[in-house]
Amino acid sequence: MADVYRSAAMTSLADVIPEPLRAMGPGGLEVWQWLGLAVVIVVAILLGRLGAAFLTWFGAKLAGKTSTKLDDDLVAKLRSPLRLLVGVGIARMGLLPLELHAHAYQISVEVLQAVFAFGLVWSALRAIDVMAGHLSTAQWASTRPSSRALLSLISRVAKVLVIVIAGIGFLSGIGLPVASLLAGLGIGGIALAFGAQKTVENLFGAVAIGVDQPFREGDFVKVEADTMGTIEAVGLRSTRIRTLERTIITLPNGRLADMRIETYTRRDRIRFSTVLNLLYGTSAEKMREILAELEKVLQEHPGVAKDENITVRFMAFGASSLDVEIIAYLMTAEMTPFRTWRQELLLSFMEIVERKSGFAFPTRTVHVLQSRP
Questions:
Q1: Is residue 253 included in any domain, yes or no?
Q2: What does residue 297 show for φ and ψ, rounded to 5 degrees?
Q3: DSSP of 268-310, one letter per residue?
Q4: Are 189 and 209 found together in one domain?
Q5: By the 8 A CB rule, do 272 and 294 touch?
Q6: Beta carbons within 8 Å of 310's beta carbon, 6+ residues apart
């Protein structure tokens, strides 16, 4: 059917084309056919711009009716790829009246198909960028800063997959044996995975940290029993921790994902605990008065959590003192106000003990028995 149409078009065009343009040119095409190809390309570019502008305008109208900005940004980002796709479609239709011979027509169609595939890949890459950008600015991502590295990783992996799939399709289109190529890549991938085992382990560790969120950048953490510091950066291979000595410790993510991690930043209050050592000469009546006044100080302090149990108890007869245990929770997660409130409480305890008794020092009494000869 297309051949009949092209023949009819050729017959009608041959009647109006001047004889000089019917001369044979390069590639077995006549001069008017080469000029026609140039005209088709120019018209496809112009109409591609007009078509993309109309589709973008129509898409923006539809996207404006929704509450999210994702579709608005997606329409704006896809405008350039749409120009290419619409232009390729118009050029494909423009080839019919030119009555190219079979070989030239096949080459032209294959070139247009390759350009169209490139436009699809371009559109997919831009769509991935738009979605990754919106996810990184979402509320859940703002509360989980380390997820941004995970989003960046996922977007890069998605782009690589799109490019790889497009490359496989291109190789298959030009007639290469894709099945044997994929088998060779699979064997090479296995060998590479064994060689880069630690790198892959750290990469999956970064993914696990990003999903599980045991800490965030800026958190003060304790790793195992010997490392304390502030999380400075969570990378794809390792995590950097600024210690209390202001040094930097770098831990691989694969190893860090299996460690015991204690995050101090996420606590809602800080435990206040101390033991007062009173003199052994303190009477039971004085001890009761001291305990009552100590508990009153805690109950009246504005920084002490009243919904938690406040413990003020005579704990034990020590080796050289009467021990009083005090436990309470202070309503802060920051160390600066905690240290201030702790100082206020300890000074108040000191005043009470100095009025009622005294603080004991470690002492030892030695009794010497002398027997007669």
A1: yes
A2: -60, -45
A3: SSEEEEEEEEE-TT--HHHHHHHHHHHHHHHHH-TTB-SSSPP
A4: yes
A5: no
A6: 295, 298, 299, 304, 327, 328
pLDDT interval class at 102 (50, 70, 90): confident
**For the chain, what is the radius of gyration of the CA atoms?**
39
Write out pLDDT tens, residues 191-207.
Answer: 555 555 666 677 777 77
CA distance 80 to 84: 7
Could you tell me the residue range of the domain that residue 15 belongs to? 2-137
For 18-27, the pLDDT digits (tens) are 666 666 667 6
Which residue, of 212, 247, 266, is where some domain finishes? 266
Same domain, 188 and 239: yes
Boundary-marking domain end, from 89, 114, 137: 137
- Angle between helical axes of 178-195 and 147-173 (0-180°, round to 10): 150
Domain count, the chain: 3
Average pLDDT, integer, range 85-108:
79
pTM score of the predicted model: 0.49
CA atoms of 240 and 253, how far apart (whole Å): 10
6 and 23 share a domain? yes
**Residue 11, number of CB atoms within 10 A of its CB:** 10
pLDDT tens digits for range 51-82: 888 888 887 778 777 777 777 777 788 888 88
Q: At what angle do helices 284-300 and 335-356 cross, to 10 degrees?
A: 150
